[in-house]
Structures are given as structure tokens and as C-alpha cells.
Amino acid sequence: MTPAAPGLDDHRPAAAVERLHAFEDELRAECARLGRPRADVTLIVVTKYQPLELIRALRAAGQVDFGENIYQQLRTKVADPELAGARWHYIGQLQRNKARHVGQISDLVHSVDRPEVVERLADPGREQPLGCFVEINLADAPQRGGVEPDGLLPLARQIAAAPGLDLRGVMGVAPLDVPAGDAFARFAEHSARLRTEFPTATAISAGMSADWRDALRHGATHLRIGTTITGKRPSTA
Ligand SMILES: *Cc1c(COP(=O)(O)O)cnc(C)c1O
Predict the structure, then answer these.
(1) How confident is the model over 206-219, as a mean pLDDT?
(2) 210 C-alpha vs ligand 1 centroid, how far in Å?
(3) Which ligand 1 atom sits closest to the C-alpha of 229?
(4) With helix as H, strand as E and coil as C, how does the chain read?
(5) Quick one: pLDDT band at residue 144, thresholds 50, 70, 90?
(6) CB-based contacts of 133, cutoff 8 Å, min separation 6
(7) 33-92 tens-digit pLDDT
(8) Who wins on pLDDT, 234 or 24?
(9) In this predicted structure, what is the pLDDT of residue 142?
(10) Which residues line the pocket of ligand 1, CB cutoff 6 A?
(11) Which atom of ligand 1 is closest in space to residue 208's alpha carbon?
């Protein structure tokens, strides 16, 4: 048994490191239970609004993948020498006037959801291709982020044809009004549909603090975990 991790109101960097280790233990156990290799799952720690000291402590503890959703915060963190070697995942809404800048400093972008964004992310000059996920709207009603399921393949084709972009898979956020398991089951079908045309686009970015076990059960390859590891986010008001 892992000793209980510090509570989510404990904002010390050392507490976040303890919660990271506790989460890793749970993730390893859950993978074993599902018969999935731990190496098939990328743990992204979502550090939006978190101070540099906390992120540095997680990096020093060996964490590589971090998620951010605001360009200005991402820029500060990417430039921090103590965070060298980190891999940056942009998971936020892409505003048309920021998309190009986001693409220039991210390693992967999870929230590609419309043609004008693909045009702005495309860059023939990139040394390493930018990994792209198509964000799908999993709610029944249109919402702020994500392409409607009908738009998945056309957008995927545009990404696959764009210079400097590497189509990795799909990304989704489970809506609050349906059980997460049902949403992720449908999401897995969208991923299968994508793979019939793009067999290498196998990634499924799904699962947050509240629903990662459901996501993992339905094939998630990239978990985006914030609160459970970082603790509660500082007030954003
Ligand atoms: C904030 C955020 C997360 C992490 O949420 P937690 O509930 O804190 O784990 C994951 N995905 C996206 C898109 C987010 O904006």
C-alpha cells in the first residue's frame, strides 16, 4: 500500500511530488489490472496556473510531459532553464491570432479543431514535426472546443497533408451530462474510424483527474492529469 498522499490543499512542491509518486503507483496498478503495458500510456501533468517552483520540483522528480492551456503561461515555462528537457503539450483553446505562436513553442497540440488553426500551425521550417491531435466535441450540443464528429476525417486529412505537422490521434473532454464511460466508449469508435484511414494515428488523449480510469479502460494513451497531482489550482480570479 502507498501511504496516503498529501491533501489537495497542500501547495508545497514536495507535496506535489508525493502526489505524483502516488498517482504513478495507481496508474501502474490500473494498467496491470487492464493488462495494458504502462509504457503505452503517457502521463501529462497539467500545470496551468501553477507556479514555476512546483513544476520544477515535478521535473526534478523525473516528470517529462506537461500540459498548459494559456499561451503566455506556456511561454514562461518553456523558457525556464530548470525545466529543460520537458515536453510541452498545449491543451487549451486555440485563438486564431495565437495559434502560430503556440505551435512554435509546443511539442504537441491536443486542441486542433478547425481548418484555420491547421493553416496557422503548419510550418515547413520545423526541425521536429509538431504532434497534432484532433479535438472532438463529445457533447451532444455544440460547445466551445472540438470539431463535430463529422468533421474528424476532413480535418485529419488537412493535418496529414500540412508541412511540419504529424497527425497523432484524437483528443476529447468527457461532457458533464453523460456518464464518462459512455462518452469514452463513443470516443474510442471515433479513434477507430480515424485509424481506418490513418493507421499510425493511434493516440487517444482522454482522461482527467475525475475520469482517468474510465478513459484508460476505453483505450486512452495520453492522460491529462492536473488537480490530483498538482493540488487545487490557485484562484484564477
Ligand atoms: C485543466 C485540464 C485538464 C486537467 O484537469 P484536472 O481535473 O485538474 O485533472 C485536462 N484537460 C484539459 C483540456 C484541461 O483544460
Answers:
(1) 98
(2) 9
(3) 9
(4) CCCCCCCCCCCCHHHHHHHHHHHHHHHHHHHHHHCCCHHHCEEEEECCCCCHHHHHHHHHCCCCEEEECCHHHHHHHHCCHHHCCCEEEECCCCCCCCHHHHHHHCCEEEEECCHHHHHHHCCCCCCCCEEEEEEECCCCCCCCCCECHHHHHHHHHHHHHCCCEEEEEEECCCCCCCCHHHHHHHHHHHHHHHHHHCCCCCEEECCCCCCHHHHHHCCCCEEEECHHHHCCCCCCC
(5) confident
(6) 108, 109, 110, 111, 112, 168, 169, 170, 171, 203, 205, 222
(7) 999 999 999 999 999 999 999 999 999 999 999 999 999 999 999 999 999 999 999 999
(8) 24
(9) 76
(10) 46, 48, 69, 91, 173, 208-210, 224-228
(11) 9
Q: State the pairing for strand pair 203-205/165-171.
A: parallel
Phi, psi of 214 (to 5 degrees): -60, -45
- pLDDT band of residue 141 (cuts 50, 70, 90) is confident
Plot region of 138 (φ>0 → left; ψ -120 to 50 → alpha; else → beta): alpha
Report the nearest atom of ligand 1 relative to the CA of 210: 7
Q: Is the pTM of this model over 0.90?
A: yes
d(CA 216, CA 230) in angstroms, rounded, equals 20
In one letter, which amino acid is 65?
D
